[in-house]
Every structure is written in structure tokens, then in C-alpha cells.
Amino acid sequence: MEEIVQEDVYNHGEASSSSRSEEEQWIEGLLTKLEMDSAYTSEKLLNLHVLLMHLLAWDNDLEGVGTLDSSAASFEKALTFDLLCGILESEVKEVDEVLDELEAQIVDTSYKLSICKHPNSIFMEGKLGESAESLKQSRGQVSEITLQLAQLRRRLHYIRNGSSENEESVGYLGSGQDLRQKYVLRPSDLRHKNPLRMLEKSLARELELEKKLIEFQQNEEELKLKLHYTEEVSSRMEEASEFIWGQFLEAENSSEVLMGISKELVGRLQIIQLSQNGSAQRESELKAKLEDLTVQLEGKDLLVQKLEGTIAENREMVSEVLTLREQVKSAEEKLEKTETELKSVNASKQEVLLHLAETEDANESIKESLFEAESRAESGEAKIKEVDAANLELTEELNFLKDADDKKTKKVSSIEKQLRELEFQLQNSKVSSEASQEQQNMLYTAIWDMETLIEDLKSKASKAESRTETVEEKCVVVSTANSVLNKEVILLRQRAKSLEASLELANDEKEKNAQEITVRNKLLMDMVMQLSSERERIQEQLYSLAKENEKLRVNQCSMGSKFQRNKTYAGDKELPFNAESLQAGIHYKNAMEEPETDVEPEDHYASEKSSMNTEIRRAPNLRRILVLALAFVLSFILCFGVCY
Asked: Where are the transmembrane segments (predicted)?
């Protein structure tokens, strides 16, 4: 059975070296087999315990079997009791052998689990621990059954010899007296029975001695097997300790490398913190500048609002001028010369509109750039917060790694001590196999713990490396983002400066345009006032001229009537009608109407005639003045519209 198990173990070892999946399947099969065997042994021990209870119940009925008065049924009971005790003893030995095999299999599987790194190793180790605990319980049950069997064997021995346990010591003292009594009672029977009893006792003792020799031989073989197993286990433990020592050396090297990497990362983190502080200061400066720019823009918006108010006032003035324009539509045909000026004014208007559109686009681009700068600043702050959180995590991991390194060194020293103790225990295990088994279990648990610790340390080291790589990548990203932000800040500063210059130019142009508008408004108001005064004066002159014309018509009519009368008095005599005769008639009429004043009417008529001539001459000049005023008003309206 042991050879078959060893062959299976070696076959499974070769399969594990060939492919890892087969090895895992083999380990799982071993675990299931161990569980089945442990369940089988536990059930068998329960059945044996039940049998033992029956034997103990029969033991009370077999006290009087060794006497002379005992019957054949009692002898049959004793024989069946003896046979059942033998069967139970053989079954207990088989169970003990099975338990030894199970113990060897558990040791082998634990060693295989320690060598191969299975993902479900913790679960498998738990199963192995459960099987080991069940094996210990079954060992205790076997020991109890063996003790009770030994007691039953003593009882049988005493029953066969015809004495009890308490009477054994007294039997040798009273044996002479009993023999004497029996000899006295039955002298012929005693001669035959005494040697037969002596022979039976000697045979029983020989059988017991043979059994004890067989048991001792079996114990020696078991001890040899256990020593062989312990030697194999010690060799495997040495290999495992060498492997673990190599892993410890690798862990120390990796810890040193990680310490160097952590120092480099600490330096990089300090540099990153300095760069972050500089970027934070730059961001604060940029925010202050942005606030200043916003304040300036608000002031400029107020100025623009004031200009809009003035423009609204100018619109009202323009509405008044438009009312004047409706009155002056009759003079539009005479303004062909002003069309060229209007075309030039339109061109200037388009240029001014384009300039204003450019300034508005520039203002919108400034606002968009400011909004983008604020959003990028916020994103930069968020990235800085993320980097700070990552830095805190890295510092915590570094502290944890430092603590782990200290613990590792302590555990290495403790493991060295444990290895020394293991060597001492291996020496002692050659003497006592049971103590060595317990020490081996302790060693296996310690080795499993150390392997799990090594795997945890490796996983933590890999995690730390991955996190350091991620932190380096984040640092690179942050540095690139900082460089991009710095470039964008420089560009924004340049744009802000250019926009400030353009705003200053636009403000200067607006102020100039406002000044020109105010001057032109004043000129327009003056011209309008002059035009209104001139219109009133012309209306008065026209009214006076109309009155004078009516007077002249009346005079002409009166002179014509007098001339007709004179013609009728003179008969058919014809007089030439000319200006001199008309003047003579007028003078005559005046002389007839005003005989007292001879010289003054002639002077008055001459003055009126001269005033009429001057008024007639002034009329085209007034028309020209009106045309020029209308042209000026139209040009001003067009210029005002262009500026608006």
C-alpha cells in the first residue's frame, strides 16, 4: 500500500513538472482522496468503538468463566470474546497503518503546495488543516481503543489463569495452600492437572511473548518507516529552507531596490511639490491679473454705456434733424455735387463698421480666452489635488514598506532561530517519532506562513512598482500640463496686452469721435439757429416786399387810370409810353396827392426801388446758403450714422 502511494506521488510529481494544470488537478485529487480516507477512518473508528462497547458489556458477564463451576456456554462466550478482541485489535492496527499513510500523504501534499504557487492555495491549506485535525482526533480514538483492548486482554489473561487482577499478587502466596487442599481432595487428579496447567501457562506466556515480539517488530518497522519518512521530510525541509532562504535573499534585494526607488520617488515628489508651489504662485498671480482685467473691462463697459447714452441723445437730435430734412426735400435735386462726398462718407462708414466689428470680435475672443483660462486653471487645480492625493498614498505605501522591511528582518532572524530549532528537533525526532511529527507540523505551518508572507511581500512590491510607475506617468502628465499651461498663460498675457492696446486705441478713437460729435452737434445747433433766424428775417422781408408790391400795383393802377383820362381829353393824340412818362406820372401823382412835399416822395421811391433791387439780389444768395446748410446737415447725419 505504501509503495503504491509513493508511486502515485512520484507519478504526480512528474505530471506536475510536465504541466501545471495537471499538477493542480492532481493536488485537488489528493485532497479529495484525503477527505474520503479521513471520512472512512472516522466511520470505521465509530464502528470499532461500538464493538468495543459491546465487549465491555460482555466483560462483566465473563468474571466467573475461569472457575470450576463455569458452563460450556460461558466458555463459548469467552472464546467469542477472545475472537472479537483479536478482530478488533487487527482492525485497529489496520486503521493505525491507514492513519500513518494519511499522515505521510498530508506531509507530501503540504510540501507540494509550498513548492507550487496555486491561486487557491489558501483554500487547499485550509482543507489540509481540517484533514490534519481529523487525523489527530482519529489518533486519539485509536489510542483510547488500544488502551481499552489492553485492559480487556489482561482480564482475559486473568480469567484464563483463574484469578482476578486483585488476586494476582496474593495468588503466588496462596498457591501452595490451594495445591495442598486440592492434593488432599484429589491426589490423582492433581498429578495430571498441575503439569497441564503449567504447560498451558507456559504456552500462553510463549504466545504472549511471540505476540509481543511481533508487536515489537512491527513497532520497529513502523519506527523505521517513520524515520525514513522523517529523513525524507527533513531533506525536503532542507530543500524548502534553501528555497525559502533564496526567496528571502531575493526579497532583501528587492527591498533594497525598492528603497532606492522610493528615495528617487521622494526626490521627484519634492521636485514636483516645488513645481506645484511655483505653479500655484503663478496661478495666484494670473488670477490677480485676471481680476484686474475684469475690473478694467467693467470700467470700459461703463464708459461704453455712457457713450451709448450720449449716442441716444444724439439720436434724438438726429430725429429733430430728420424733421428738418423732410422740410428740405425740395432741394435734393440740387445736391448732385454732394454725392461724391456721400460715397466717400459711405466708404469711411464701412471702414469704421469693420473696425468696430473687429473690436467686438476681439472683445469676444478675450472673454472666451479668459473663460478658457479659468477652466484650465480649475482643471489644473483638480489635477494638482489628484497629484497631492497620489503623493499621500505613495508616502503611506512607503511608510508601510519601511515597516514591512523592519518586520521582514525580524522575521528573518526569527526564521533562522526556528531553523536552528528545527535541526535540533530533527535530531531528537530520530529518538521520538511522535514529538518529531508535532514539530514538523509546527514547522510546516511556520513555512506556510512565511511563504504566504513572501508572496504578500512580492505582491505588495509589485503593487508598489505599479503605483510608482503610475505616479511617474502622472508626474510626466502634470509636468506636460504645467508646461502647456505656462505656454497658454504666456499667450494669454500677450493677447491681453494686445487687447488692452487695442481697447485703449478704440477708447481713444471713441473719445475723439465723441468730441467730434459734440463739436458737430454744436455747429449744427448754431446752423439751425442761424437758419431759423434767417428764415424769419426772409419771411419778414418777403412780407414787406409783398406789401410794397401791392402798393406799387395800386399806384400803377391809379396812374393807368389817369393816363387813360388824359388820353381821352387829348383826343386822338397818342403819347409814347415809356419809363420816363411813367415816372413823370408817378411824380405828378405824388405831387397831386402831396402838394406840400415836392422832393421827399421822389427820394422815398428811389430808396424803395433800391431796396427792392437789393432784396431781389439777396434772394439767390439766400437759396445758396440754404442749399449749403442742407448739404452740411446731410453730411453730418451720414457721418453720425457711420460713427454710430
From this structure: 625-643
Residue burial 172-208, b: 16+ Cβ < 10 Å; e: rest: eeeeeeeeeeeeeeeeeebeeeeeeeeeeeeeeeeee
Nine-digit cell at 108? 507530501
Residue 3, burial from CB neighbour count under 10 angstroms (0-12, 13-18, 19+): exposed
At residue 346, the 3 state secondary structure works out as helix
- Are residues 313 and 517 in contact, defined by beta-carbon separation less than 8 angstroms? no
Reported as a single tens digit per residue, the pLDDT across 293-336 is: 778 778 777 877 776 777 677 667 666 656 655 655 655 565 56
At 519-556, the pLDDT tens digits run 877 887 787 788 778 878 888 888 888 888 888 888 88
Assign 3-class secondary structure to 456-520: HHHHHHHHHHHHHHHHHHHHHHHHHHHHHHHHHHHHHHHHHHHHHHHHHHHHHHHHHHHHHHHHH
Rounded Cα–Cα distance for residues 549 and 274 (Å): 103
CATH 1.20.1050, domain 2-185, yes or no: yes
Q: Scanning the structure block, which residue is given the C-alpha cell 430725429?
A: 319
CA distance 613 to 625: 19
Q: Residue 506 CB: number of other CB atoms within 10 A?
A: 20
**DSSP secondary structure code for residue 598 in this structure:** S
- 3-state SS, residue 97: helix
Where in the chain are the domains?
Answer: 2-185
Out of 352-356, 467-471, 619-623, pick the least confident: 619-623
Greater pLDDT, 288 or 626 = 288
Do the beta carbons of residue 622 and residue 538 sit within 8 Å?
yes
The total number of residues shown for the chain amounts to 644
Query: Mean pLDDT: which of 50-64, 193-207, 378-392, 435-449 is highest?
Result: 50-64
* DSSP reduced 3-state for 120: coil
